[in-house]
Design a protein that fits this description.
The protein has 27 helices and no strands. The protein is mainly alpha-helical.
Length: about 575
């Protein structure tokens, strides 16, 4: 700046690079200030329509996007597209990139149809101008497939991704990095459809190829290992997921260093696996370590630091330490409001997390007020059919249910289910969850037949879509057993509960929280049939295991002690 001057192109490029670094560090305001400076300078020197000016506008729009300021980003991107069309023409690569960016903004707001129209336009133009096999054409097809995926239109996404993969194989070769990325995208489509075996087979192939072609320590190899870890987790194969994640973490630590974001993310993933297995203390220890490192490296207000604080709060909740969780979540929410703004998606998530914890404390009014506020803001910002809206509505319905407001919960659950069917599809996992929630509402009103009908349909779809031993299928079967139990159909309830328990023992292990829940459910069935001795044996086992894993004061331990006391009481 001192040598070349404030307005020299090289000076402006260096300022833009610094803004990019600030963005990566989550220092959005500083990035915004610099990007504004660069944009205004380019406008003054080169004019509104110069490519350098348009690039600087794109960078500023990107900063707005990172802050969740969609409308401001959209206005800027529309400016870029219109100017590019006028100056460079409709079919110029820069124009197509601008249209793609605008589609991305629509996509992030859940405006799937508008995003789709633009992405189809980019793809068709790229095919005509550049050819079907041009890299930019393949990228545009990949982007369109991502939009289909977010709408739950898995088959259409799959068809496009298969086309891209086959073209990449033919043009670039089976081992080319772009081909492997295409295969990874296709594997994620299988994954989203619950086709775990197909996803796993492809992910293993990608991982092994990358190990051989790029080395075990290459970031792309680590990414493919991480994708495989997620597939193991979805199948409840915790031990395999843990072994693979430890490998990732150790390689990342050795190659990139213990403070590198990738190393810290891998530690967070390992903490999540520990949590899934009910190994709360190990998860907590890792989460605390990650937070302290992020604070030291990136600062207390960096998005990654806040995400890790949320994970630690979740670990506290799992241990029944709700007050500590509330303190941490309130801190996250306050920072999000101050740094990102009241309406940023991350701020809304932090408010929803706090509302959920209030629910667990039985603070229903506070939970309802906060969750209602989040829902209304989300509708206004994201639109009625955005997937996040369904999540917010579901959280509110849960609060109604916990207050025994069955009619309110039923009305909301019906609305959620219908929207999910229309938006995501009849067989989408989120739709199945909505069906189970609606069935629970019926069940609590004593409307057994309606509850049973919905649950049986959900289980049938879940078995086909996700597999007979998938955790979601197990949850549905447990719900059906509960419905049978409430109708005193003991044999049917017992047979289902035993089946779920045995599958969970085999897949999750004897001491997993879900396995213990199944055992407690079976003990409850025995107790209702006055089979006191059988109930007592199971309840003692659940209590002792819970004490060993969670400690004497954990809510699960206290519940198991209360259940055992009721069995003793029933026997006089």
């Amino acid at each position: 700046m001192r040598v070349l001057g404030r307005d020299h192109p090289s000076t402006l490029i260096s300022i833009g690079n610094l803004a990019s670094i600030y963005s990566k560090l989550g220092r959005w305001k500083e990035a915004e200030e610099l990007n504004l400076q660069v944009m205004e300078t380019f406008k003054r020197i080169h004019g509104q329509d110069h490519p350098d000016t348009l690039n600087s506008i794109n960078h500023l729009a990107s900063t707005y996007r990172n802050q969740g300021r969609w409308k401001e980003a959209e206005v800027l991107n529309v400016q870029v597209v219109e100017a590019s069309k006028r100056v460079l023409g409709q079919e110029h690569p820069f124009t197509l990139t601008g249209i793609g960016n605008l589609a991305g903004i629509y996509w992030e707001q859940g405006r799937w149809n508008e995003a789709e129209v633009l992405k189809v336009q980019v793809m068709e133009t790229s095919k005509r101008v550049l050819g079907k096999e041009h890299p930019d054409t393949l990228i545009s097809m990949t982007n369109l497939a991502a939009t289909y995926s977010n709408q739950g239109r898995w088959k259409e996404a799959e068809v496009l991704r298969e086309q891209v993969m086959e073209t990449s194989k033919r043009v670039l070769g089976l081992k080319h990095p772009s081909t492997l990325s295409c295969m990874s995208n296709l594997a994620s489509t299988y994954w989203n459809q619950g086709r775990w075996n197909e996803a796993e087979e492809m992910q293993v192939q990608i991982m092994e190829t990358r190990k051989k072609e790029l080395s075990q320590e290459h970031p792309d190899t680590l990414n493919s290992m991480n994708a495989l870890t997620l597939t193991y987790k979805k199948q409840g194969r915790w031990k395999e997921a843990e072994v693979l994640n430890i490998q990732i973490m150790e390689i990342s630590n050795r190659v990139l260093g213990h403070e590198h974001p990738y190393t810290l993310i891998s530690m967070g993933n390992l903490a999540s696996i520990y949590s899934e297995q009910g190994r709360w203390m190990e998860a907590e220890k890792l989460n605390v370590q990650i937070i302290e490192t992020f604070k030291r490296v990136h600062g207390k207000e960096h998005p990654n630091t806040l995400t890790c604080m949320t994970h630690l709060a979740s670990t506290y909740e799992s241990q029944g330490r709700l007050k500590e969780a509330v303190v941490l979540l309130m801190k996250v929410m306050d920072i999000c409001k101050r740094v990102l703004g009241q309406e940023h998606p991350s701020t809304l998530d932090s408010m929803a997390n706090l509302a959920s914890t209030y629910s667990k404390q039985g603070r229903w009014k506070e939970a309802e007020e906060l969750q209602g506020q989040v829902l209304e803001m989300s509708k206004r910002i994201l639109g009625q059919e955005h997937p996040d809206i369904l999540t917010r509505m579901n959280n509110l319905a849960f609060i109604y249910m916990n207050q025994g407001r069955w009619k309110d919960a039923e009305e909301l659950n019906l609305q959620i289910m219908d929207t999910s069917k229309c938006t995501l599809g009849q067989e989408h996992p989120s739709t199945l969850t909505c069906m189970n929630n609606l069935a629970a509402t019926y069940e609590n009103q004593g409307r057994w037949k309606e509850a049973e009908e919905v649950i049986v349909q959900a289980i049938k779809t879940s078995k086909t879509l996700l597999g007979p031993e998938h955790p979601d299928t197990m949850t549905g079967m447990s719900n059906l057993a509960s419905t049978y139990s409430r109708q005193e159909r003991w044999k049917e309830a017992e047979a289902l509960t035993v089946k779920v328990m045995e599958i969970r023992k085999r897949i999750l292990g004897e001491e997993h929280p879900d396995t213990l829940t199944s055992m407690a459910n079976l003990a409850s069935l025995y107790w209702k049939q006055r089979r006191w001795n059988e109930a007592e044996v199971l309840k003692v086992h659940v209590m002792e295991t819970s004490k060993r894993i969670h400690g004497n004061e954990h809510p699960n331990t206290l519940t198991s002690m209360t259940n055992l006391a009721s069995t003793y009481s029933s026997q006089g």
